[in-house]
Amino acid sequence: MNYWYSYWQKYWKQFLVAALFVTLEAVCDLLQPTIMASIIDIGVAGRDMDYVLQMGGIMLLVTAGGALAATARNIISSTVSQQVGTELRGQVYGKIQTLPLAAVDKFDRASLVTRLTNDVTQIQSLVNGMMRISLKAPILCIGGLIMAVSLNPRLSSVLAVVVPVVGLLIFINMRIGYPMFLAVQEALDKLNQAVREMVAGIRVVRAFNRFTYEQTKFQAVNVGFQERSVKALRRMAVFGPSIALTMNLGIVAVLWLGNYGVQSGQMQVGHIIAFINYMTQILFALVVISLVFNVFIRARVSAGRISEVLAVQGMAEDVAEDGQESVFGQGRIDFEKVYFAYEGTKPVLENISLTCLPGETVGIIGPTGSGKSSLVQLIPRLYEPTAGTIKLDGRDIRLLSPRLLREKMAFVPQRALLFSGSILDNIRWGKAGATPAEIEAAARIAQAHDFIMGFPEGYETRIGQGGVNLSGGQKQRLAIARALVRKPDILILDDATSAVDSATEAHIWQALENYTAKLTCFIIAQRISSVMTADKIVVLDDGKLAGTGSHRELLANCAVYREICHSQFGKEEC
Ligand SMILES: Nc1ncnc2c1ncn2[C@@H]1O[C@H](COP(=O)(O)OP(=O)(O)OP(=O)(O)O)[C@@H](O)[C@H]1O
Fold it and tell me: Which atom of ligand 1 is nearest to the CA of 349?
């Protein structure tokens, strides 16, 4: 909860100033019924026009003072709530960037978006509400009670019944509301997830003509969200009117008692009007308190969801970087008895031990789902092994700063992801400040230069979000260029040429051969031809190491490798 305290520490002064203005405003509101009672009972009843004008002037001044105070607290509250919202969004965004991927998988991406947008907005509304009405309501409530009791203790017996009943209603409201709004937020997560999935897969949906199916799926989530919201709001809807009804019954009781008081000469009409005014103020305050509680309940749910994200230990925070630059050597990687499982899954890697020497190229091959991607994702610490150790130049990578560790590497993931911007921006994304010559050199190795120059605007060609205006193979080549421009010590290519035609792929490997001569390189591939010339080939099968060695050695000793080779080249050729 440190983060909430830090916001309090930062904004408590503004909060107190707002509280001061709110108190002033509430006092002005509380004074008005008493002034009005005097005008009626003394000025009007006694036909004293001077008194009416004098007290009327005072009443106007008090009202103006209240209006000025309200304006000031409105300005402060909206400024502070916007600032808190902006900072909190920035804080959550920053945290998401450092979350371990296991945590990102656990939260689900759509839920993280909802937490960053909707949940932060709920907190923003709470801060705004707290500085505006939630302070005023208790002051009006307590002040109104004091004024009412001092005005007429006999009529106040009505309040002794009404106020506890209303308090109880508010308490029940809170108890019922909290789990319901939690359910609403979860339904909203599902809604976002459904939209995200459909938009991401819109081509497939169209190609398969699955509009109706997707629409039905979406409708189910949409209606689920509606049902939960309606259920929550319906239950909440009972409370406001119940409170109003209780208070109105109280007002009727006051009129009834007041009638006897006036007739027996014990009470004045002005007093009764003022008393009813105070009761109305108390009613208003209590209704506002119940509304604020609703905002509070939602914000509490949101605060919990935001806290969950902020509480996760960010990856980049856990290791001091002092002097680490010097520990990196040439890029030797050792896997020592490494086991790995995703959260809630059975182990996807078991007892993996292998060494990759500096300058070596290691090909990784194996059936689909055998754990190839999982293996290489452990190197830049995108995930952490569940057991065993991975060492870089002899040092456990858990003791190295993830930032410095990743600076040494370049990673081309299975799905080439590009960002909106120009082709130049996308390649330069790999290394800030890369010169046009460096960018072109990287693009040439990745066999991207020619197709880039084929566009009318060359390297300045704009890329749509996610690279929509490029082919799969073009995207992959840009992703490779982005990695190469980084000039890493360790290069990881995860099935990076799967969408590239065989001839171009062969050119890429040829060009890469010189480039990778000095660096440690991991190449995951489906085709044996892509890894055949590697210094070492690692064969994975169902998360286990099925063999390690050169093409010839594996053909002789590894059944899994032989099978893959036979399926791709035929028995004779192998
Ligand atoms: N984020 C994840 N959460 C849970 N399980 C996962 C996750 N990613 C992969 N897996 C599981 O881990 C296993 C290994 O997957 P991995 O992607 O490493 O295989 P792969 O050999 O790279 O497959 P492919 O050749 O098809 O890319 C699979 O059984 C897969 O279902």
Answer: 14
